[in-house]
Design goal:
The protein is of the alpha+beta class. Among the domains are: 143 residues, no CATH class; 111 residues, D-Maltodextrin-Binding Protein, domain 2, CATH 3.40.190; 126 residues, Toxin - Anthrax Protective Antigen,domain 1 (Toxin - Anthrax Protective Antigen, domain 1); 130 residues, Jelly Rolls (Sandwich), CATH 2.60.120.1560. It is built from 30 helices and 28 strands. The strands form five sheets. Strands 6, 7, 8, 10, 11, 13 and 16 form a seven-stranded antiparallel β-sheet that branches. Strands 17, 18, 20, 22, 23, 25 and 28 form a seven-stranded antiparallel β-sheet that branches. It is elongated and about 120 Å long.
């Protein structure tokens, strides 16, 4: 082996190892934890161990016996060490060039580092394992070209099925919810290297997706799906290698074809989910363990340990693979003690590799254990479920197991994401073969690796019925390869029996081959027909089932240009964790709760604006309000035609920048000799008030009054000024603040809208009155037209926010907030105060919808409800009937959030004979701003 070959083979793992060593050194200095000092030693020791044993033992499955040790080459080993040192210096220089002020861990996730190193080390170790070379591979291909062609054809056909119309969901199209979550995190990673994904999900896959987006520079959704298609195709090849090892050539080809055309796995490979990684790393882990036990080579045990570690950071069902393999090795230690004793050092390599690459995830679990157990049903929860179903804990588990089997063979996945609605996940051929194979494996459980397959099968099925919230197809996703392997065992042994028959052996072989071919043809035709025809003609599209997110995002994407988007919908749109805005091209915008919360003149001056409105808002009423405020816009409607699945309405209202500019200002009323005229004032960027009808005032003097709403952009003290004119009177929130003898006033204003009135006597010789202010940030300016609204002041409640040691106030049109995760402070508290206007007496249902905190509600100084909801709950309402008389009623609501993953609160009511809805701003009036600290009349 030439030095150049050695250098090229060691370069990739050397760079990865150097990166990990640098990260470990940084963490050692920062945390002074000895764990980070041990990490480099583990890495170096593992590398030397693999290098030192490389080439010592020839795989027994190739030669049938161990080979003699090969000579070591000191020169090659020295060059490898030099390349490692050079790569370390190169990585250090790269970090210095990128940004001397940032550390490696600010650019990359630790799990990503170790996963990448594991992928490189495992791949190189596996490819460069003993007895493997391009020469031996060429000899094998020459001797087994028919098998190679068949495998290539199967893999190519599977790739075609998974790539066909990949820009859509398996026909007829749509976007699955978790694709929005993954797309948002990946997009944020590409925009901000310091961003860290949601901790409950596997960060390593996010960084692979982010790398693919950076390399492609193309469509985000298409790129993300292509990454998972690649994982699905890799699963086919890895599964064939394992099946070939356990079953032989023809049974392996048969079961690989069944996996290839499985509609369940085709659909999952086309989604930007991490489900497909569960069977992929499960197969790789089993392949490494089986090869390791056969050859006693540490490289294969390292492969198994790495696959277990990476799979652990993935989707929940993979977690059953680890105890299944541990139980299998314990059983092997009992029945085959010499084998286990001979592989003790190799099992240490497996454990060491697993511990190394799972270390960041395990450290995170020890710090935040609820993350690991959040998606699991613990015994207490199963007990609660048993009480709810009026049964016992074993009864719940039994019902879950039956439901799991029903999903596989009868009704299918309820959400129809992984299959046709109502269709089972397994085709009839696969289901029958799996049933026969499972029974055969149970009868012959002591043979070969049957115990391992049975443990994995039981664990995979339990993943859907025991460990997760409820049985679902995605939660038993690791079961299909195992079912096919046990079915292949029955095929293999049946083939052996038939091959030994003495009665017309040629005829028996022909009949057997024809039956097997017909069986595979039925499975293939069934899967392909359903995929290309039945699924394409399904009356229920994924977009219809998932609701307004997909419809709204696709509508925004279809609008030319880059308009500013205001969203009014019960969805987490512009939120950093559950963000679907990336699908719409990452438009600028924000979520609003009321039409008058939009500030196009401030948010997007001169630009087109799009309002997107969806259920449960009253869409027709909102569109009517938009047409009144911004006449001349373009309205677009979409209404779901499937009320039995997901009834919703989505609408958009597109307003040009010119119309937006004309909507700013105040409403002017002129009076002269008892007559009156009214017209909206057209404001500009420098003059907040102006004459209607032209650049100057009317010919005759008259009385003028401007009215509307003034927006305070931040809470605090404002200094409002007017010209030194005795005829000008200014009132804010109904209080006269400027008059004939007062040209300046300092007053506290909460963030939000306030009523504004300006009155004066018109004199043609004088310019129109101009108001100016000094804001809390000490900016002095003429009040811009963008902060003026030619309509009456909207209602709402005065919200007082207590965040750490800070307090600020805002007028919130409605109480309907989803702050999501990571709100930026360990705890905060909000108190909303104001008046509830009731026009009709009767029995009202008052409700606080809550998640991740505790809340209370008081009417007329009396507490009417109090509730608390944890972070794990999807949200719950606390309704209470209240008899309310007509007129104003003092209202106070409190919300406290502490160390939760999300914060979600809505203040709702259901009027007599009405539906439950968020209390509208028209029924609310805020308390006066600038109040003192809250009292104790309505405790939180």
């Amino acid at each position: 082996m030439t030095p150049l070959v050695v250098l090229s083979r060691m370069a990739a793992p050397a760079i990865g190892l150097a990166a990990v060593l640098l990260l470990a050194a940084e963490e050692l200095v920062r945390t002074r934890s000895p764990a980070w000092a041990i990490l480099p030693a583990y890495l170096v020791g593992l590398g030397l161990l693999v290098w030192g044993t490389r080439g010592v033992v020839q795989p027994q499955h190739e030669t049938g016996r161990p080979s003699a040790p090969t000579a070591r080459r000191p020169l090659a080993f020295a060059i490898a060490l030099l390349s490692f040192s050079g790569a370390s210096l190169a990585v250090a220089a790269a970090f210095a060039i990128m940004d001397a002020t940032r550390s490696p861990s600010q650019y990359f996730d630790r799990a990503m580092f170790l996963t990448a190193v594991g992928m490189v080390a495992a791949g190189v170790g596996f490819a460069l394992g003993p007895g493997t070379s391009w020469t031996s591979a060429g000899r094998w291909l020459k001797a087994n070209w028919r098998e190679a062609l068949l495998v290539a054809a199967i893999v190519a056909f599977g790739a075609f099925l998974r790539l066909y119309r990949i820009d859509e969901f398996p026909p007829p199209g749509g976007l699955a919810p978790d694709e929005g979550l993954i797309g948002a995190n990946v997009t944020l990673i590409t925009l901000d290297p310091g961003f860290r994904p949601q901790p409950i999900l596997p960060s390593s896959y996010y960084y692979v997706d982010a790398l693919a987006i950076r390399l492609s520079g193309g469509d985000v959704l298409l790129t993300l799906r292509l990454v998972h298609v690649a994982a699905g195709v890799a699963l086919i090849l890895a599964f064939y290698l394992l099946a070939r090892l356990l079953l032989g050539q023809w049974p392996a080809l048969a079961v690989t074809l069944l996996l290839d055309v499985s509609r369940w796995y085709i659909n999952a490979s086309r989604l930007t989910y991490n489900w497909i990684h569960v069977p992929l790393f499960e197969v790789l882990a089993v392949l490494g363990l089986v090869l390791g036990l056969r050859t006693r080579h540490p490289a294969y045990f390292a492969l198994a340990g790495w696959a277990l570690a990476v799979g652990l950071t993935g989707y929940v069902p993979f977690r059953v693979v680890i105890p299944a393999m541990v139980l299998y090795l314990a059983w092997k230690a009992i029945v085959d003690r010499p084998l286990v004793r001979a592989n003790l050092a190799n099992l240490g390599v497996l454990a060491l590799t697993f511990g190394l690459f799972a270390a960041p995830y395990i450290a995170q679990v020890t710090r935040q254990p609820y993350i690991f157990f959040e998606r699991h049903i613990v015994i207490q929860d199963i007990g609660n479920e048993a009480a709810r179903r009026n049964t016992t804990v074993p009864g719940v588990l039994w019902q879950n197991a039956l439901e799991t089997l029903s999903i596989l063979t009868q009704g299918g996945e309820p959400s129809a994401v992984e299959n046709l609605r109502g269709a089972p996940l397994l085709d009839p051929v696969t289901a029958a073969l799996a049933l026969a194979g499972a029974g055969y494996a149970i009868i012959r459980w002591r043979r070969g690796h049957n115990v391992l397959l049975l443990l994995l099968m039981a664990g995979a099925l339990a993943g859907g019925g025991v460990l997760s919230e409820q049985p679902m197809g995605r939660r038993i996703f690791g079961v299909l390869p195992i079912l096919l392997l046990v079915g292949g065992l029955a095929l293999r042994d049946a083939g052996h029996v038939l091959a030994q028959t003495t009665f017309r052996p040629q005829l028996v072989r022909i009949a057997t081959g024809a039956a097997l071919g017909a069986m595979l043809l039925v499975a293939a035709v069934s899967g392909i027909y359903t995929f290309f025809w039945g699924q394409a003609r399904s009356p229920i599209t994924l977009a219809e089932y998932l609701g307004p997110r997909v419809v709204a995002s696709n509508r925004i994407r279809a609008i030319p240009g880059r308009p500013y988007v205001y969203l009014m919908a019960d969805m987490e749109w512009f939120h950093r964790i559950q963000d679907y805005a990336w699908l719409a091209g990452r438009p600028e915008g924000r979520k609003i709760e009321d039409v008058r919360d939009a500030l196009p003149g401030v948010d997007a001056p001169g630009r087109d604006v799009v309002f997107v409105v969806a259920s449960p808002y009253n869409v027709p009423a909102v569109i009517t309000e938009l047409e009144r405020r911004f006449p001349g816009g373009v309205t677009w409607w979409y209404e779901s035609p499937f009320p039995d699945i997901s009834k919703f309405t989505v609408a958009s209202y597109h307003v040009s920048g010119q119309v937006m500019a004309m909507s700013q200002g105040l409403t002017a009323v002129y009076r002269d000799d008892g007559s009156a005229s009214q017209a909206p004032v057209i404001g500009d960027r420098t003059v907040a008030l102006g004459w209607a009808g032209g650049p100057g005032p009317p010919a005759r003097p008259r009385f003028a009054r401007w009215s509307g709403a003034l927006y305070a952009p931040a809470p605090g003290l404002y200094t409002v000024r007017k010209p030194n004119d005795d005829t000008i009177v200014v009132s804010i929130d109904g209080v006269e603040v400027l008059s004939a003898f007062k040209s300046q006033a300092v007053l506290p204003l909460a963030r939000g809208w306030h009523s504004l009135g300006v009155a004066t006597t018109v004199d043609p010789q004088r310019p129109p009155p101009i108001l100016s202010w000094r804001r809390p940030d000490n900016v002095e300016e003429t009040i811009p037209a963008a902060f003026l609204l030619p309509l009456e002041k909207p209602g709402g409640l005065l919200g007082t926010y207590y965040v750490g040691g800070r307090t600020f106030q805002a007028i919130d049109p409605v109480v309907a907030f989803y702050w999501g995760s990571q709100p930026g402070t360990p705890s905060y508290r909000v108190r909303w105060e104001g008046v509830l206007q009731v026009s009709t007496a009767g029995r009202y249902q008052m409700e606080v919808w809550l998640r991740g905190g505790e809340a209370s509600l008081c009417l007329d100084g009396r507490q009417v409800l109090q509730g608390r909801a944890g972070r794990d709950a999807p949200g719950r309402g606390f309704p209470v009937p209240v008899q309310i008389s007509p007129g104003p009623h003092a209202l106070e609501a409190n919300f406290t959030w502490r160390d939760s993953e999300v914060a979600h609160i809505e203040l709702r009511w259901a009027p007599p004979d009405g539906l439950m809805q968020v209390i509208p701003s028209s029924a609310l009036q805020p308390a006066a701003s600038g109040g003192a600290a809250p009292g104790t009349a309505c405790p939180p």
